[in-house]
Amino acid sequence: MQFDVYENKNASTKKRFPYLLDVQAELLDSIGTRVVIPLAVETESKEIILSQLMPVLPVQGQNHVAVTPQLAGIPVRELSSQVENLSNFRTEILAALDLLITGV
Fold first, then answer.
1. Per residue, what are the HEC states of 10-48?
2. DSSP of 50-86, one letter per residue?
3. 17 with 38: CB under 8 angstroms?
């Protein structure tokens, strides 16, 4: 579901990005993939945090950076346990995607 946060099951990226934020609209559920933004623990993120492009979002009581430039499509089967829903941060998430795609 859009704005749900899932544990990252991929062993090679899980340490850097423990969670994945689903940003795809439910209208496209039938295509078998989901578009996600990886979330990095704020204190461990080595990325330069640009507040609009990479908003800080709370997951499980800890701040995480949405690494929007690493937006990816993954098979639905790669999404494991849903741990949070960030619908309350819809404005910030959509602003990050808008900046990434349109530059505005």
1. CCCCCCCCCEEEECCCHHHHHHCEEEEEEEEEHHHCCCC
2. -TTTS-EEEETTEEEEE-GGG-EEEEGGGEEEEEEE-
3. yes
Please give the CATH topology (third level) of the domain spanning 4-102: SH3 type barrels. (2.30.30)
Q: How do residues 51-81 score in pLDDT, each as one tens digit? A: 899 999 999 999 999 999 999 999 999 998 8
Q: Which amino acid is at 47?
A: E
**Residues, the chain, total?**
104
pLDDT digits (tens, 9 = 90+) for 24-35: 988 766 788 999
